[in-house]
Design brief:
The chain is mostly helical and 65 residues long. The chain has helices at residues 2-33, 42-59.
């Protein structure tokens, strides 16, 4: 049962990080559209979140989607 809890926690973390990366991406696009400056490192931070999602995917058992 502990393995199920860990898998569920990893799925939740993956979903939260993916949502965060999506939100940051939307904020970046909106800021650029409105000619609002985006702080240095924000785009790289979004890229790091996307990489983190891929790493979490590697931790999830295959076929657990």
């Amino acid at each position: 049962m502990a393995t199920d809890d860990l898998t569920a926690a990893r799925r939740l973390l993956r979903a939260q990080v993916a949502d965060l990366a999506t939100g940051v991406g939307l904020a970046i696009r909106t800021a650029r559209r409105w000619n609002v400056p985006v702080e240095p490192g924000v785009s790289e931070g979004r890229t790091a979140l996307v990489r983190w999602v891929a790493l979490i995917d590697d931790l999830l058992p295959k076929g657990s989607e």
